[in-house]
Design a protein that fits this description.
binds 3-hydroxypyruvic acid; binds magnesium ion; 8 strands; 15% strand; 13 helices; alpha/beta; TIM Barrel; 263 residues
Length: 263
């Protein structure tokens, strides 16, 4: 278990962290991803199936599996960001942040005064991080990260403003939405060269502004590219694909013995 080891310290040290991505509301799968060696696991409450109760169980399972705990909130749900921080999320990712105002409102929900207006009661977070309540209180603002997703043309245009929000820890790029937005809806091209160029520029600006840069990736080649571009928090692998791919592989084995009954 990562007692007294904080994701924030790891990312600020400049060492890249790869996070598994969990959308199935099965806390034990999130725990298995942690036990499988992902250094962090992200619970996706934007596009995933998690509700609050299953997210809480998943955060505990990830801690039990020895990994760092990250959660993505639905668009604009800053109250949930505070609740998930209370439940032990070390890093909150907010989608579709398009302005300084969006970024500031989100980041302030994750930080206690004077940096923000997070409300008090982090008992579960203290337990999962292996700290006393007082230790947690003293370190909470530096140890609980807020990452604003950059995934629209509007966000690119407002990037300098967003990066100037003092209480915001960094950005997290969503290449799928970004490619849709930059092409005015003409194409989904998260892995394309044009999208990669924009992603690299976002990482460079974030690092120059003293902020953390993260990105959503699905395969090892994109993870390698992201590391070269200067990203420090990089996703790889979604649980629904792990399960789907395993089902496919297992069924193919028996197809060789008895031809599939469905064509
Ligand atoms: C994107 O690529 O737009 C994402 O939000 C990844 O989930
Ligand atoms: Mg997105």
């Amino acid at each position: 278990m990562n007692e007294q080891s904080f994701l924030a310290d790891r990312l600020r040290s400049g060492t890249p962290v790869v996070t598994g991505w969990s959308v199935l509301c099965v806390p034990m799968i999130a725990e298995m991803m942690a036990r499988g060696g992902y250094e962090a696991v992200t619970i996706d409450m934007q596009h995933g199936m998690y509700d609050f109760a299953s997210a809480c169980d998943a955060l505990a399972g990830i801690a039990l599996g020895g990994a760092h705990r990250i959660a993505r909130i639905p668009i604009g749900d800053n109250a949930l960001a505070g609740r998930l921080a209370d439940m032990g999320a070390e890093c909150l990712i907010a989608p579709m942040i398009n302005s300084r105002e969006d970024a500031s409102a989100f980041a302030r929900a994750v930080k206690y005064p004077p940096e923000g207006d997070r409300s008090w009661s982090p008992f579960r977070a203290a337990m999962l991080s292996g700290q006393s309540i007082e230790q947690y209180r003293k370190g909470a603002n530096s140890q609980t990260l807020s990452l604003a997703m950059i995934e629209t043309r509007e966000a690119i245009d407002a990037l300098e403003d967003i990066l100037s929000v003092p209480e915001l820890d960094g950005v997290f790029v969503g290449p799928s939405d970004l490619s849709i937005s930059l092409s005015d809806g003409a194409q989904l091209d998260p892995d394309g060269a044009a999208t990669a160029k924009v992603c690299a520029a976002i990482a460079e600006k974030a690092v120059k502004a003293g902020k953390l840069a993260g990105i959503f990736c699905l395969n090892a080649d994109k993870v390698r590219e992201a590391v070269q571009q200067g990203f420090c928090l990089i996703s790889h692998g979604i649980d629904r694909s792990f399960v789907g791919d395993s089902i496919d592989r297992a069924r193919r084995e028996v197809d060789e013995i008895i031809p599939a009954r469905r064509s």
